[in-house]
Amino acid sequence: MILLDANVLIDYWRQPEKLLELKITPDKFALCGPVRTELLHGARDNAEIDNMLAFFQGFKNLLTDDYDWDGCGMLLNTLRSNGIHIPFVDAMIAFTAMKYDVPLWTRDRHFKFIQGFYPELKLYEE
To answer: Model confidence over 91-107: pLDDT tens digits?
Structure first.
């Protein structure tokens, strides 16, 4: 199982044939709440929101709980204490990937900074 970041899906959302070329299928990949939120936030209209919601249904959703919010806060605190500021949503995605011990497929450089302090964060290589 590989956790998909929104930036990977955004690149291919408007070109569904690219998803097939990359073999992005629900049996191999997962989503989490923050990724779903980022995608819905960028939707152009209600029809696209409906399509995204239907698309999400096929994927395993890695759930979060109170433990994750606390852990994410501590992760952000560690980074900030070391002079690194990243978006909250990226911290939560990283924490979710570490919790479930799954690699994260992303194109966002923030995750390399996180990995520098949390080597247990596995990043999927394209």
So the answer is: 999 999 999 999 999 99
Query: Which pLDDT belongs to residue 58?
Result: 85
Whole-prediction pTM value? 0.90
**Residue 31 contacts residue 56 (beta carbons within 8 Å):** yes
* 3-class secondary-structure state, position 39: helix
Rounded to whole angstroms, the Cα distance separating 121 from 126 reads 16
Count of CB atoms within 10 A of residue 91's CB? 23
CA 27, 100, 8, 42 dihedral sign is positive
